[in-house]
Fold:
Amino acid sequence: MNILIIESGAHEQIIQPACEILSDKNNNKISIFALKQRKKWFPEWVVENFTIHLSSSFLFWYKAIYLSRYYENIFIFTPPEYNNTWRGLFNDISFLLFLFLFKKKIVIRILNTERWKVIRGSSLPMKLSSLIRLTALKFIRLYAFEYHAIYKSLPEAKPYTLFPAGYWKENKKNVSFQQKLKIGFLGNLDAKKRDFTLLIRTLESLSKEIRNEIIIFFPSPISNPHQNEIIKKINKYVEISLNDDRTKYMSHLESSDIFLGLLKKDLGYGEKKGTGIFGDALTLNRKVIAPIFCDPNREYEKIAIYYKNNLDNIIRQLVLAKEKKETNVFDINPSYMKCYSKSFYYNAYVKLINSRNER
Structure:
């Protein structure tokens, strides 16, 4: 089976697990099609092991039409959900044409269900763009979501399978009990999406003794002065560690003891769109501290420590657990993890595309 994975956005850092899942069988040939300006951010392993086709954003879907003739299956890992300009509207029209021509080959991974409905109170290009995606649902036959709860907000998107941005690997490095608690911060330093006010308030409430036992690691490089200001505010309370190489996002993150997914509730995480934090946690075999609203059905409860109004208490207990060398607090029981494995997601994907052939 030959598969073309299409990455039309900026998720190249997490595309490696998708490649590994879909190449689960040796006879599968995987290629990637992505934006030309994003190639430099692809992980080295992906560049070395897979063919990567590139295009400018303006002609992206026309080149996708040309390439897709040579593939049995097409997996759209990141669809165009955030176009809000007239130029973006041109891309959406060519995307619609692409879907019409290759609807029998495509599985599309929906990231934000709200973007597949009419967006009211927005600019004209954004409204027209949402109408095009709404029309696109008539052509799409197979879907993928990060978890079941998101599908419920777009029930017409069926049949579907689960396909998070990661899978469970039994590769965890042991927690070093000779060091401070290292918390890996998941995602970019984006104040619109991440609740830094909550984090700073939480750190303020912790005693100096507890704060002295914490390192927060930020794997996404700092790219603007506003992010610098955020880092300075956090650094007033705890030690921080930074990464200046975007391609090393996952490998550097692996040095953390536990992850923190600091998401804002008003953006629809867990109900309308996925987060990616559970995929990172699965891939690197770490537990993740996550807001309870982003996993309403507790589909990832085996790897999650949920917070509501108790983030400070969770961090305090983790510091104390590390001091007492309580490994069970950080360890994930492998017997629970088969439903998050590479073979599980691959078999579910194959079952989905086989259902297409049976219809």
In short: The two ends are 19 Å apart (CA to CA). The chain has a mean pLDDT of 90. The first strand starts at residue 2 and ends at 7. The CA atoms of residues 166 and 279 lie 4 Å apart.
